[in-house]
Design a protein that fits this description.
The complex is a heterodimer of chains A (409) and B (187).
Chain A (H helix, E strand, L loop, with lengths): L10 E6 H11 L2 E6 L6 H14 L2 E4 L3 H13 L3 E6 L1 H16 L4 E9 L5 E5 L4 H6 L8 E3 L4 H18 L2 E7 H4 L2 E6 L64 H9 L2 H4 L2 E4 L6 E5 L2 H15 L4 E6 L7 H8 L4 E6 L5 H9 L4 E6 L8 H13 L8 E2 L3 H7 L6
Parallel strand pairs in A: 2-3, 2-4, 4-5, 5-8, 7-8, 11-12, 11-13, 13-14, 14-15
Antiparallel strand pairs in A: 1-9, 5-6, 10-12
Helix pairs in contact in A: 1-2, 1-6, 3-4, 10-13, 11-12
Chain B lengths: L8 E8 L4 H15 L3 E6 L9 E9 L11 E6 L2 H7 L3 E10 L12 E5 L1 H8 L5 H13 L4 H11 L5 H21 L1
Parallel strand pairs in B: 1-4, 4-5, 5-6
Antiparallel strand pairs in B: 1-3, 2-3
Helix pairs in contact in B: 1-5, 3-4, 3-6, 4-6
The chains are: A alpha/beta (409), B alpha/beta (187).
């Protein structure tokens, strides 16, 4: 299905990442946002509000984040593509209902413009430390999909992709952006509506009396109905069977399928951008804004004659296990820069199975990496003969100045 | 840390909230990235500043993709307040260009920099509204530094201001642009 021309602000725009995400949502056909504006995501909410009346969409500023995400659940069940926009503290408050949405397989999108630090942190500066929370922040077993943009253009493109994946797999999808991308203004090319592919709601088409709410299609995803269309629909966040009724028999419940519909479709969901991996001795694994800064280090390293591969995770979750394991058998090591003190690096370590060295280049947030630190880590991998005992945590130039020398020279 | 790319220009705008410091970054960024076919990444200060307080925006313009999104050593500083000048002059490269409003900024530094002054706010008041001082400055910046083309600015400017003020903004831009040409001749 193609986007509706009314929803798409076709043209070459000069906008920030927040606004671009809002434009992406509108282009994807989002008709409802329940939100509680929070720095540094406020511009996205404002942009959506300004455009909403032109496209028949609605924004409700709820009393808090709990209300916001709950309103999103209701709107999506009524058949409208829905999302919320938030940052760290709001993201935390939404966790319980994110689990509810995953459990009842409600398609929706969360835009998380990550800020620095835990708790209130640094509201006006960047961070990438919500990555593990995005994956399993709510209780119990479930899987989600996340996308990490590195520019306003990707904020636009990936928000559309987020809606498509949410509808296709009936799953919460999170745009894990960050303050740097959110507040960065750049050129964004918004294509014509007929060039934008959008995934329509997967609607049940059979007879009313035969409808079984959680009976999946072959790809493990059940079709939906809209609330108010006269189908019999029982929704309970208790562990439930195909009919939606509570059960204590896990085997007969949807529990396993919530996991499998993502894991078994991972090859279709996972998107990575790779370059120079064929003969790489070192691979830099990164996501979001850090990919962009890391690429400068990669370019510098290549000028020094080092063969560096670039592996960008567009979807961090689900994680590209197979790809990392396959690479680990061929390369000397991996460099993983992220704006946190180590989250995704542990997933890399899990998939490397001790086959290669790994250096974490951490960053406490409020800014982006100094590319020189990533370059030094690349050089260290090339130079070191011995196998590290676990992940080597890199000390940045700044940390060395403050705390004295660490392992790296 | 330094940029490797010789084709990169880093610009910092410093002034007060309400002077159009951020708008200036957006207008030049739009001109460079959309009409001059370069890459331009604009960032603004998101500190605890409020209207009337210190405000700054930064712009990185490049022939290729901008990878590191913030300024490191600026090529050009545009100062519309004393604080904006004092706070950011240290990050200006040797032989970098300082453009400032001569009625609002008093120079202190003895650094080796090229300085260009213009009574931007006074010109804006003469044109009828001091709010367009930043656009006078943009005209001045365009002719002095040629970091963007005049043609690109002529297209970007009307798109970036309210319709009823387009004419006034163009006048302001031209005023600054012409003053820049005269200043260059005088140097």
């Amino acid at each position: 299905m193609r986007a509706n021309p009314r929803d798409v602000r076709t043209g070459i725009l000069y906008i920030d990442g927040d606004v671009a995400a809002a434009e992406g949502a509108l282009a994807a056909g989002c008709k409802f946002v329940g939100g509680y504006p929070i720095t540094p995501s406020t511009e996205a909410a404002e942009a959506f509000v300004r455009r909403a009346p032109q496209v028949g969409a609605m924004f409700i500023q709820m009393e808090d984040e709990l209300g916001s995400i709950s309103a999103v659940m209701g709107a999506s069940l009524s058949g409208k593509k829905s999302m919320t926009i938030t940052s760290g503290p709001g993201f935390s408050l939404m966790m319980e209902t994110i689990g509810f949405g995953a459990m009842l397989e409600i398609p929706f999108v969360i835009i998380n413009i990550q800020r620095g630090g835990p708790s209130t942190g640094v509201p006006t500066k960047t961070g990438q430390a919500d990555m593990m929370q995005a994956r399993w922040g709510s209780q119990g077993d479930y899987e989600v999909i996340t996308l990490s943009p590195d520019s306003p253009q990707e904020s636009f493109d990936f928000t559309i992709k987020a809606f498509n994946l949410a509808e296709k797999y009936r799953v919460p999808v999170m745009l894990m952006s960050d303050e740097c991308v959110g507040h960065m203004t750049e050129k964004v090319v918004v294509p014509e509506a007929d060039k934008i592919e959008i995934e329509p709601r997967r609607l049940y088409k059979g007879p009313k009396d035969k409808y079984v709410p959680f009976k999946p299609d072959k790809d493990l995803v059940p079709p939906m109905v809209k609330a108010g269309d006269g189908y019999k629909l029982y929704l309970s966040a208790l562990t439930h069977n195909e009919r939606g009724y509570p059960t204590q028999n896990i085997k007969n419940s949807s529990s396993r399928r919530l996991i499998d519909k993502i894991r078994l479709n991972a090859d279709d969901i996972i998107e990575i951008k790779e370059e120079g991996l064929e003969d790489a001795e070192v691979v830099v694994v990164s996501y979001g804004i850090t990919s962009r800064v890391a690429f400068r280090a990669i370019e510098q390293a290549r000028k020094l004659g080092i063969k560096v591969g670039n592996l960008r995770l567009v979807t961090v979750w689900p994680f590209p296990d197979k790809k990392i394991t396959e690479l680990s058998k061929k390369v000397k090591g991996f460099v993983v820069p992220e704006i946190n003190y180590g989250q995704v690096v542990f997933e890399v370590e899990r998939c490397v199975h001790g086959n290669a060295n790994i250096i974490l280049v951490p960053h406490g947030g409020a800014s982006v990496h100094n590319p020189n630190d990533i370059l030094t880590a690349i050089k260290t991998i090339v130079k070191d003969k011995k196998r590290y005992d676990g992940i080597l945590e890199f000390k940045t130039e700044l940390e060395l100045r403050i705390f004295g020398s660490g392992d790296n020279k | 840390m330094n940029r490797m790319e010789a084709t990169v220009t880093e610009i910092r705008f410093g002034g007060f909230g309400g002077q159009g410091i951020i708008r200036s970054g957006i207008i030049i960024g739009r001109a460079a990235s959309i009409y001059d076919n370069k890459s331009a990444t604009m960032n603004q200060s998101f500190g605890p500043e409020a209207r009337g307080g210190a405000c700054s925006s930064q712009l990185v313009i490049s022939e290729d993709r901008v990878l590191y999104p913030y300024v490191i050593r600026t090529d050009i500083l545009v100062a519309l307040s004393q604080e904006g000048y004092e706070k950011f002059v240290h990050e200006l490269k040797d032989n970098g260009k300082l453009l400032y409003d001569e009625d609002l900024v008093k120079l202190k530094s003895t650094k080796r920099i090229d300085t260009y002054s213009i009574p931007a706010t006074k010109f804006a008041e003469e044109l009828g509204n001091r709010i367009i001082a930043n656009v006078v400055m943009l005209g001045f910046l365009t002719s002095i530094t040629q970091v963007v083309s005049k043609e690109a600015m002529n297209k970007a400017l009307p798109e970036s201001v309210p319709e009823r003020y387009v004419e006034l903004n163009i006048k302001a831009f031209d005023k600054g642009y012409k003053y820049g040409i005269e200043q260059k001749k005088a140097k």
